[in-house]
Predict the 3D structure of the following.
Amino acid sequence: MVFDNEKKVYMDKLYKPDKSKKTTVDKEIIFLIDKINSLLEYYTTSSCAGRIVLITIPKKNRKDLSKWLFSSHKKIKFSELPLTKFPKETVYFRQEGLILHIACKDIESAQKIVDKAKFVGFKRSGIMATSKRIIVEICSTEKLEAPICKNGKLIVSDEYLKFLIFEANKKMKQNEIKTKKFYRLM
Amino acid sequence: MVFDNEKKVYMDKLYKPDKSKKTTVDKEIIFLIDKINSLLEYYTTSSCAGRIVLITIPKKNRKDLSKWLFSSHKKIKFSELPLTKFPKETVYFRQEGLILHIACKDIESAQKIVDKAKFVGFKRSGIMATSKRIIVEICSTEKLEAPICKNGKLIVSDEYLKFLIFEANKKMKQNEIKTKKFYRLM
């Protein structure tokens, strides 16, 4: 019953705006989140569909001081990138795949969903907590992480940026294909 | 007893050359591997200290067709990179942190080692298998993934490559610090 009550609390706030000032679910994966939450053994606690971002990395790698200059959950075009004004910190072009955190009723249901995730290629997946709640983390492996700017200046050519975008869009597509496969397995 | 017998099998082959033609353990983390294997509840099944590599990515992202052009488990210098002859495939400069796979006696000991890993900053850590054996995967978060070459030609400047190396070396250092902290917690 504890699990069912906790699930109810999470479901009540699922589509309400959260602290990060956007709704808790990226619209690109609502179909998957709804499917998972329709199953008795699971509920999602956080999620990201996958994204392409421009992010500043402060000197001492303090995440709380990072700034997001751009963010998209789908394929992007060169013209979308804000390339006119840069901060002094190093700016990274980053692409990353889907991330899900899912509370599970028991270890067996947790293992079942991890196996499905691995099967479709979300290889960095596992049970990350078992004591208070059983939480599974599902991560895809697509990634790009390339510095593009330092000391306020761009350090790569437009051609290079366009190639980064080409590669990032390809990875977003792979991530999307896996996401749909995972949905069909659920 | 099953666990103890399996551990014995793994320990017997730990420092013998494996199929990948090098010994199974990077010398930079032998101290940690030996510590983990000295504990009754654990044994390591695979490991990587963290690395900087140049790797070709074939068109359809088929891992088995990837070629390693360069690999180092420690900080590198610009002069070490083989920059004279490039293949036709896209070449990526990649840095990644420590990865460990550890078999655990039970779920409790698995959760204990995951908690320690997370505490030192190996955030992508979890229990990835529970059915036949209980296997924990511990991954650090440092990463760089930047294309540097396509169609046989370098697409970034020497200055950019030097900055990539600077950033990669910094991440290797952070990874090393976490690895030592993890060792002290074990």
